[in-house]
Amino acid sequence: MYKVKVYVTLKKSVIDPHGSAVEKKLRELDYNEVSNIRVGKYIEFFVKKSDRDVEEVVKEVCEKMLVNPVIEDFRYEIEESVNQ
Amino acid sequence: MYKVKVYVTLKKSVIDPHGSAVEKKLRELDYNEVSNIRVGKYIEFFVKKSDRDVEEVVKEVCEKMLVNPVIEDFRYEIEESVNQ
To answer: What band does B72 get if pLDDT is binned at 50, 70 and 90?
Structure first.
């Protein structure tokens, strides 16, 4: 069994309305030291060992289901996990 | 300047409809080795050095704006950053 962590972020060139909304609110609350908030996704899942390469499975899952490659980047970590 | 990374996850006891939807779709696509998908948030921002403790600022921002403590857990990483 593998534990997989995927980090999905908006590409630098893409405006982040969620981040901007949080930042605007923080200004109102006088947190002026905080800037450049970018809100992405953090996804965890498990992959059972099979005859397929785990990295290949993870990439396919990301590209088909979790990430919009037009506006998002992603990276992932795969670690062996004994128990689920 | 500090770069901050925040990971927000649903508490274990909380059902994750987004994760379940992805998992159902993956079953249909025959990715049967993938399980327990949990979708959380990954947030990045910068904190300018000030007379306030950076960790205190980060905790407050998380608790006030980024995390719903009833259903979510969070952890964060703070690293010194030279340029934004």
So the answer is: very high
Residue B29 lies in a domain: no
The DSSP string of A4-72 is EEEEEEE-TTS--HHHHHHHHHHHHTT-TTEEEEEEEEEEEEEE---SS-HHHHHHHHIIIII--TTTE
- Are A43 and B47 in contact (CB < 8 Å)? no
Q: Please state the rounded mean pLDDT for residues B47-60.
A: 94
- Whether B52 has its CB under 8 Å from any CB of chain A: the answer is yes
Interface test with chain B among A65, A74, A84, by most B beta carbons within 10 Å:
A65
Q: pLDDT tens-digit profile of A34-63?
A: 999 999 999 999 999 999 999 999 999 999
Domain membership flag for residue B23: no
A52/B33 CB distance under 8 A: yes
